[in-house]
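[scheduler] slot 2 assigned
[scheduler] job type: sequence-to-structure, two independent chains
[scheduler] chain ordering preserved from manifest
[runner] begin chain α
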Amino acid sequence: MAKKNNVMKIVAVSIVLLFLVSGFSVMAYGSGSEKSISSGDKSGNISNTNITPLTQNSSQNNSGGYVKYTLVLLNNSLINGNFVNTYNVLYPVGVAFDSANGYIYVTIYSLNNVSVINGATNKVIANISVGSSPWGVAFDSANGYIYVADSASNSVSVINGATNTVIANISVGSGPQGVAFDPSNGYVYVTNYDSNNVSVINGTTNTVIANISVGSGPQGVAFDSINGYVYVTNFYGYSDNVSVINGTTNTVIANISVGSGPRGVAFDPSNGYVYVTNWYSKGVSVISGATNTVIASIGVGISSWGVAFDPSNGYVYVTNWYSKGVSVINGATNNVIANISVGLGPLGVAFDPSNEYVYVANYLSDAISIISTSPQVIKKYTVTFTESGLPSGTSWSMTLNGTTESSTTDTITFSVPNGTYSYTIGSVSGYTVSPSSGSITVNGANVNQAISFTSVTTPLYTITFTESGLSTGTSWSVTFNGTTESSSTNTITFSEPNGTYSYSIATVSGYKVSPSSGSITVNGKNVNQAITFTPVTTSLYTITFTESGLPFGTSWSVTLNGKTETSTTNTISFTEPNGTYSFSIASINGLSVSPSSGSITVKGTNISQNITFTSVTTTTSHSSNDYLIYIIIAVVVIAAAIGAVVAMGRRKK
């Protein structure tokens, strides 16, 4: 098998190099944008647009589930249904779920990395470089780390799930393949295929504390949480058995013969059985953890490899390499109930309880088949409650086994499996009910239960509220026991049985009310309650603005509190209650005013405010040209005067 393992490694690497050297368009992707890569750059997955689908079917469905999505690792695309890609260079192998962050970790054999899938989006969000030819992978719930078996590096890479970075590399035996975590002691168990032993890593220190010799070619490993034992499949050299390690002493306490070529192993805590896949004998061996003996052999597909347990439905999922499918085993009966077609060469398989999907690594089609699981089908029976005594259309309700249903018809039904269930009937005002509670036993048949309601007569009394003080026709209202009534008369009435009820009176503008609220007790007779409204008077005060400086009869205006008044006398008046009010004086051409605006506070007295208008004098300036004109006019006038004098002198002569 060592030779076969090496041949697989050589073939995988050769195919990668062939496509890189021959010039095919390849791309690497991770959590960031895509980039071209060369043969020396293998930090991400490889994408090629030449993907040929064999089948794409989202409708396959059976009692064990169906392939809801296919995640194509070549280009990180999510496709509805089962998509089978025939072009492969990545070779995904191991799958593990990290319950701390909800991510799925997939080992990529040819690229020496681990792809991280977000279970919420089912897309790859990171690619983490690890050792050479990573194979098995497991999550340690105690420290939150993911342990990856690097089969060609003889080491284990430790990934911190919080940061998705490698924090340690631990040397182990030769050809490590399987990994499992034992939460009872905090140890991680690693099968070393070529050195025929199991390395035990202390998860606290990340150091190897023991190496346990087992059979030839150990591969799969799983922990049984009921008995505390670790089960190791021995594949090579015709060992055909499972070594049982006591986790307390880290010693082999038993070797259990199984089928031919055991590979995968998983524990089902619902029945205490250990399931072992047998590569050559086309079957799954079922080991009872209580006796460490094989109690059944289940026929599955050809070359079964991976195996995982789904606690949501109690089914065991087995990958079949050559059959290109997943066999679904009902753990209650140990029968195969379904076969689900997936990609080529399915290997690793893991269940994600956060979304109830099963993830299958398809080694030969570079894709992850994501199976939506179906819960186990349970026969249910109808429990019918039929009431009598209620008026037609009356709503009634009941609770069975914590579920409440209501109806306005005479029946309420539930659908439940076999079992005994308690029930209670909801109360209906004015009625008693029999029975008001009880239990129902369902045992392979529908059940009917009669419910009787009996009318209970409850006397009602009148509560009258009588108001005084309001103007005739004024509307007022009362809220009594949560019900509000209004009236424009002086009375408001309610009808209620015995009891104590609170009330409140709504405010009416311009009035105060007494009492405004209170409580009334009805005890076998009608009740009257007087309500008094009293008018509320608001005092008003005069605000007088007196102007000076305006010519008699000049119009001027003042705006106070948004209201504008105008006058041709020297006063303008307003009336307002107590408060602070802003004012402004309108401008008049040729006059300045002081103050032009401000605020006035009224506080129990009249207010006077003086306003002064002042004439604005305008000075006219003259230019040098104006003076020249004046001089010329003066010279002309003088010359004219002289001419007149001379003329008069000549006449006298």
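[runner] end chain α
[runner] begin chain β
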Amino acid sequence: MSRALRIVLACASCLCGPAATGPAAAAPPTIATWSLCELVGPGAQRPGIYGTDLGFTFVHPYRDANDTVDDRLVFLFGDTWPDATSPCTEPPPQNDDVAATVRVADLPSYPAGPPPDGPGTARCPILDFGAAEPLRTRPLHVVFDDRDVEMGYGRTPLTGWSDGRRPHGLFSAGELATCATDADCGGGLGCAHGEFGRCAVSPCTEGGACPPDPGFDDVLIPSACRLDRASDCTVPWSPRRGCAEIPERRGVCTDATGSLWRTALAASASDPDPSSPSAREREPDRRHLLARWVYVAAESPERPGVYEAVARFATAKFINSAARTIAAFDPDDPSRNDYRHGYDTLLVWGRPWFLGAGGAQSLPYLLYVDLDAGPRGAAVWSPRYFAGHGEDGRPRWSENEADAAPLYESEFDLVNQLSVAWVEPLGAWVMLYGGDQPDAMKGGAGPRAHEQPEPGAVHLRWAAHPWGAATRDADGAWSDPVPVVRPEEVAPLLACEGNGVPAGCVEGDPIRPLDFFRARLTGADCRAGRPEGVFDRGNLYAANVLDVLTRAVPPSRPGGRAAELVWTVSTWNPYAVQLLKSRVELPPR
């Protein structure tokens, strides 16, 4: 249970951070955030579920045998634990994501302002996971070419939507997009041969010494490496780990136009003396070029929880994504667009990754898809990408991902997952993103070149249109980021980073993923939990707006625009998804 949260942002906090991307002279928004309840997690008492994260949402009109529509809010959760000892499971599960639904008619309504009975005491939606033990009987499956895609640890849904006929999602198994020719990559991407490989543990040579190797390749997302850089795969726990060629000597899809590569290249070129040793040391990591497979899948009408891939595409710009469907979209005339919920057009925002480092920035991109029906009622995947502005200042669109242009030109490094929603009372698109990472995941990220305005906070941007302003020189571009909630203000939702630090923090889960890795490395008992004095602090990530619970509220100033957004956020430790509410008031237009 958390304490009351109230955040009134000062102008300074709105203008610090990366270079301005929107109207920096505008008055700052006013934002107040409150904790509502724990949606899923150790304190939520969901049968068969101890903890989970993510929980991307969309509304789908399910139909019963009499063709009666039952609108349900669908949640796509990430790696899910059935009990407190789940991190110790050997072998690790191959499918550990789950879905849940709740009838829209059964969703609680939340009065304006803080919860009347105190923070954290609001009634939470009661989710239906479709089974008493969803991890055992109904985990999410992704099927591609009649094979089950491995969706274990770190392999999750990216976002979801409905086209009015079937629930859909984008899913990532972390796989490098391999190729024989450029045509295998599509979208204007290229196929690079002989340069990249995958980290793997080499087999022991017959008769030779065979040092022990705990082998985490069955757990971790496949790591890319440069064949001429064995150090890309060097880790202290795996003496036999090295960079191996892609099977069958296939190449890997690459995109030299993505923001990770382009901004890293610009940062390395900024040295005044390009021949200096420091400049050579800062040569961009060519792994920023790499594309990965993303699956576009629709839920089977006959097998709930089984998502059948209708497409698979190589991407270096939409690995971290968010989707919304809208009522009407005219790419040539924004004045004809209707951004309210509907089934005319799918919009997907994406980033190359979940963070940037060393000068590389994970900037946002945009695509749209007309929701025309294809085989078995699934939408046809035929994306067109925002490609900047034409000579007339209007947005341009392309069928090639290589032409896609970022929505703005500067971003802080730790972006995490994003959620983008049209908020009718604000007359604006709102993006929630940011937060923090577990300390154990920060070691290989490299130095941070672009800090958040408020470290560890979830941040908000807003814009008039999905890509920003209607035309290049008009008002309404994506604003600068402003904090929505800071970690110290939700300390009772997060595990401590030290003994009682910060004030109000909680103890957290008895067993954590770190205990699994420690057990493999040392032979210790995983279920014994963490050693004394070892902490795995909680942090915020995966903010997600529940559009159906957005409501207008009276503004506090003439001409102001105000709304209350209900949204979820993951907390890592405790392994939970919390429900929050934010009152957002934007300055007058």
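[runner] end chain β
[qc] chain β: The mean pLDDT is 89.
[scheduler] slot 2 released
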